[in-house]
From TrEMBL:
The keyword Membrane applies. Belongs to the GDT1 family. It comes from Sphingobium chlorophenolicum. It is a multi-pass membrane protein. The chain crosses the membrane at residues 36-60, 67-85, 105-125, 132-152, 164-187. GO terms for cellular component: membrane. It is found in: Membrane. Pfam families: GDT1. Signal peptide: none annotated. GO terms for molecular function: metal ion transmembrane transporter activity. This is GDT1 family protein.
Length: 188
């Protein structure tokens, strides 16, 4: 159950104000087909979470306990650092003529591949040895952060203090990652 909750909260926090939300806003405004865009979000989130969890399931067998904790620590440090990095708006995929579902699913899948959320899911799957719960929690967190953009559009970015959430969350995640790294390296 830890894997589910940590992945859900970590991915939710990591996705707020990130490129996935900005791309979703552009696609929601372009297509005006909320159901298809949300379905694309879900498809991309599930696919990226499954890949991260599968990689974690593969790697966990090769690593000892301290190495698995260090792997999770690196994932947290990577996510926290990414949250502190300025976010540029992604290409709105204006030339893609695949329709709202495929454009959203493929665009968000490509954007999220190798990103902080996917790496966090991988790290949680490695550490907890529960890749299914890590994938489920991560996908839910990504969807929970991204789907409201479709429904609220620009209002969401005006309602939430995005820069404060990203900076505060980034510092928190970075500190947790550093503490886990200290513990994994037996420095504390």
């Amino acid at each position: 159950m830890d894997a589910l909750l940590i992945a859900l909260l970590g991915c939710l926090l990591g996705e707020i104000g990130d490129k996935g939300q900005w791309l979703t806003l552009a696609l929601a405004q372009r297509f005006r087909r909320d159901g298809a865009v949300i379905a694309g979000i879900v498809a991309a989130a599930v696919a990226n979470a499954a890949i991260g969890a599968a990689a974690g399931a593969f790697l966990m067998r090769m690593l000892g306990s301290d190495a698995r904790l260090l792997f999770l620590a690196l994932a947290l440090i990577f996510l926290g650092g990414g949250m502190l990095w300025p976010v540029g708006r992604p290409d709105p995929l204006a030339n893609w003529r695949l329709g709202p579902f495929l454009t959203t699913a493929l665009g968000l899948f490509i954007l999220g591949f190798g990103g902080g959320a996917q790496f966090l899911i991988l790290g949680i799957a490695v550490r907890t040895a529960d890749p299914l719960l890590a994938a489920a929690g991560g996908a839910m967190g990504i969807v929970a952060a991204t789907a409201p953009v479709v429904l609220l559009r620009e209002r969401l970015f005006k309602m939430l203090p995005i820069s404060v959430i990203r900076r505060g969350g980034g510092i928190l995640v970075l500190l947790i990652g550093l503490a886990a790294a200290v513990s994994a390296l037996n420095l504390g």
